[in-house]
Amino acid sequence: MEKKVKRIALLGPESTAKSTLSEQLALHYNTQWVKEYAREYLNKINRKYTLEDIISISQEQLAIEKQLIQHSKEFIFIDTEFINAKVWCLDVFKTCPEYISRNITEHPYDLYLLTYPDLTWEPDPLRENPNRREFFFNWYEQELKEIKAQYAIIKGLGAERFSQALTAVENFKRGL
């Protein structure tokens, strides 16, 4: 019988510890996590990204997830997913490719951890919206509500943030 790995996506504005939490949770549960492929991709290109780049990033992110899930245990943690790509496309290009919209409904995650922008902004050459994090948080939450996703809002600093994420995963595991 094939094991059913629960897929948990981290979603939230820039600089809200999605990568850190993904890695910490994967270490805690001794499983895999999928890094944010957009960083790797955008660091390789020597130009402004395009709508087609976001599609390519989304496709590769999903391919990496499908590969790593084969080596996962009870959970796999995904740093960034299709809702992020949709909001990115709509915000920057005012349109969302059908591929991305379709995958939001065809590829839903078992649980979303929505990270709140209560951490200090950390500058990074790839980050674009230091003053719009609350705006994006609200947009992401609305998207989650529209698809009736199961999600938990993660707040707090340092160990408190990890503890909230861990509690959300454990509550999900127990069916709460």
CATH secondary-structure class: Alpha Beta
- Domain count: 1
The counted number of beta strands is 5
Question: Shape, please?
Answer: globular
- The appropriate CATH architecture is 3-Layer(aba) Sandwich
- Indicate the percent of residues in helices: 40-55%
By CATH, the superfamily comes out as: P-loop containing nucleotide triphosphate hydrolases
The side-by-side strand order for the widest beta sheet comes to: 2-3-1-4-5
Beta-strand content estimate: 5-15%
Structural class: alpha/beta
Q: How many individual helices?
A: 7
Order of helices and strands: EHEHHEHHEHEH
Please give the oligomerization state of what you see.
Answer: single chain
Provide an overview of this structure:
The protein is α/β, with parallel strands linked by helices. It has a single domain, classed as Rossmann fold (3-Layer(aba) Sandwich). Helices cover 50% and strands 13% of the residues. The protein contains seven helices and five strands. Strands 2-3-1-4-5 form a five-stranded parallel beta sheet, sandwiched between helices. Strand 4, helix 6 and strand 5 form a beta-alpha-beta unit. Helix 3 packs antiparallel against helix 4 and helix 4 packs antiparallel against helix 5. The chain is globular and about 45 Å long. The relative contact order is 0.22.
